[in-house]
Amino acid sequence: MSTTNKYKGIRRRKWGKWVSEIRVPGTQERLWLGSYSTPEAAAIAHDVAFYCLRETSSPEKLNFPSMLPASARTGLSPRSVQNAASDAGMAMDAQLSSKNKLFISEYCEPPGEWSGQSREGEALSISVEDYL
């Protein structure tokens, strides 16, 4: 696995997890945004926190400007920003994990082992906004 990343505000631990943290503007305080399985999840957590803390209108400062949840807003306490960012990152990890399971099911497992659908027969669908 490569140790380089293409996203802002994240880094990879030696054991493979991706983590994100951010400084609170005007202080030396850092907010821990979480540890994630994918770099995309850590990056979306950073984007949410960055936007909530700095309200940037510059899309180039975000990793995924088009994926910023509509519920992301400024004026939150650092703890609320931390929670919103963590929830967004976990939602992204869950979404990517379910897509990976569908890929594995379709291309790597024998037919009939895993259907890629929930017990009720509905396809899995998770949105970052479901967690904010």
Fold topology:
Layout: E1 10-12, E2 18-23, E3 30-36, H1 39-54, H2 78-107
Antiparallel strand pairs: 1-2, 2-3
Helix pairs in contact: 1-2
Keywords: Activator, DNA-binding, Nucleus, Transcription, Transcription regulation
GO molecular function: DNA binding; DNA-binding transcription factor activity
Domain AP2/ERF: 6-65
What's this entry about, in short?
Helix 1 (39-54) runs antiparallel to helix 2 (78-107). The chain has two helices and three strands; from the N terminus they run βββαα. With 132 residues, the chain is an alpha+beta fold.
Question: What attributes does this structure have?
Answer:
single chain, alpha+beta, 2 helices, 12% strand, globular
- What's the number of helices? 2
How far the N terminus sits from the C terminus, by CA atoms, comes to 31 Å
- Helix-strand category: alpha+beta
Describe the largest sheet: 3 strands, antiparallel
Beta content: 5-15%
- Specify the helix fraction band: 25-40%
- Quaternary state, please? single chain
GO molecular function: DNA binding; DNA-binding transcription factor activity
InterPro entries: AP2/ERF_dom (IPR001471), AP2/ERF_dom_sf (IPR036955), AP2/ERF_TF_ERF_subfamily (IPR051032), DNA-bd_dom_sf (IPR016177)
Family: Belongs to the AP2/ERF transcription factor family. ERF subfamily.
Domain AP2/ERF: 6-65
